[in-house]
# Entry
Amino acid sequence: MSHALVIGAGPAGLMAAEMLCAAGHAVTVCEAKPSVGRKFLMAGKSGLNLTKDEGIDDLLPQFAEAANPMCEMLRAFDARSVQDWARGLGQEVFTGSTGRVFPVAMKASPLLRAWLARLAAAGATFRTNTRWRGWDGQVAVFDGSAGHEVIEADVTVLALGGASWARLGSDGRWAEILAAEGVALAPFAPANVGIEIAWSAHMLAHQGAALKGIGLRAGDLGSRGEAVIARSGLEGGGIYEVCRGLREGHPLEVDLLPDLSLAEVAGRLARPRGKASLSTHLRKTLRLDPVKIALAQEVARPLPQAEDALAGLLKGLRIMPQGLRPMDQAISVAGGVRFDALTEGLMLKARPGVFCAGEMLDWEAPTGGYLLTGCLASGRWAGRAAVDYLAAAA
# Structure
């Protein structure tokens, strides 16, 4: 029986551990934090979005350039597989109106408890408060509760997360260790993060309000979602879906009336206004709520009076943000271990017998279940590849 070491106890690491345990190997899972799955639990606080209930042809494009190197692992563990896996842990799931899949319990904690219990029953052991510091030759070195510690293993899976939410364990410090080993890395960049806008006092009066039913675009990326007025700018799922375009320097274009054509908006604006104020006219003819009217006035005051010009503005408010929120406030990151530094089985070419999985790989995807699906699929893929590596070495 071989000894496998998994470093990082998030979804990718736990899935890799599961594959290794299932093959009969002794598995030690090391986690720098005092408890496992911290980011997983935080993600489930408002309802654990496991995946998006859609076919592989719709799933793959969400991973952009990484869709090609991740294609086979996502095919092997797609949205349907994620749901079956959760049910196998005793967690029934349901699909919401937007196609997002949640456990009936909504929280992450029941699923995590069941998962850890299954891993423990399969023989996995866990060591928390054990931070990886690299290697001394072929031996993994850690700062543990007893100080300097070493662990020998026949195979290792690294699932150390990205570089956001450092307080939950994903601090990206591992990048320096791998760079010193000659591993090619793409620079970290924030993904699924809000944008910074210096609002006037007029707009800050709407802090916390949601812009619902809007269209958003940044470069080639578009979304139909919502955004929330934050003190420092805009947050929310709609913004996250176009985050990459914003990071690349494209302006944010907001369509306040995505269900109406430009001609329809202009036609409604042409209705007799009488003595009503422009805000009242917008509210009555287009059913624009106060938050949308406030945003239009914030961005383009004074609003044009001509119907065609005003219609064009409302269909394409152009906002140039001051930048993205800091990386540690991002839900996820782009960048990490480049796929050309890995074999098809996600083994480091520079370090045979060491595999990588999860957010430490150079991929990004929007929120909505895609992040967790990608972590689970890559963890499973790396774990199975590690099993094959051990079998070939036996």
